[in-house]
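Per your request, structure below.
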């Protein structure tokens, strides 16, 4: 095993965070714990999912230690997601 590989404790800690964030998202979406609107709950779950995706990309896909070009290639779909969100939310702003 290379000496620059992250320790097992780090991977287990990241796994714990991923499991906890997933459970939080499930509880927020399935159980009416907080008196929030549906749009607010969706936004919270999307933010939690973004955090989980970032953790997976940084640690399990090793983008934290790879070259920046590889990180840009892996994050380029984010531009497509932002464009799709712009189209979806523009329909809410412009009522035809």
């Amino acid at each position: 095993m290379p000496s620059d590989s992250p320790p097992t404790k780090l991977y287990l800690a990241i796994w714990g965070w991923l499991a906890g964030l997933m459970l939080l998202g499930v509880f927020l979406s399935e159980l009416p714990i907080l008196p929030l609107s549906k749009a607010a709950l969706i936004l919270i779950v999307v933010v939690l999912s973004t955090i989980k995706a970032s953790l997976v990309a940084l640690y399990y896909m090793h983008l934290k230690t790879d070259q920046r070009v590889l990180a840009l290639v892996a994050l380029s779909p984010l531009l497509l997601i932002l464009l799709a969100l712009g189209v979806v939310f523009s329909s809410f702003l412009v009522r035809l």
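The chain has four helices and no strands.

Regards,
D.
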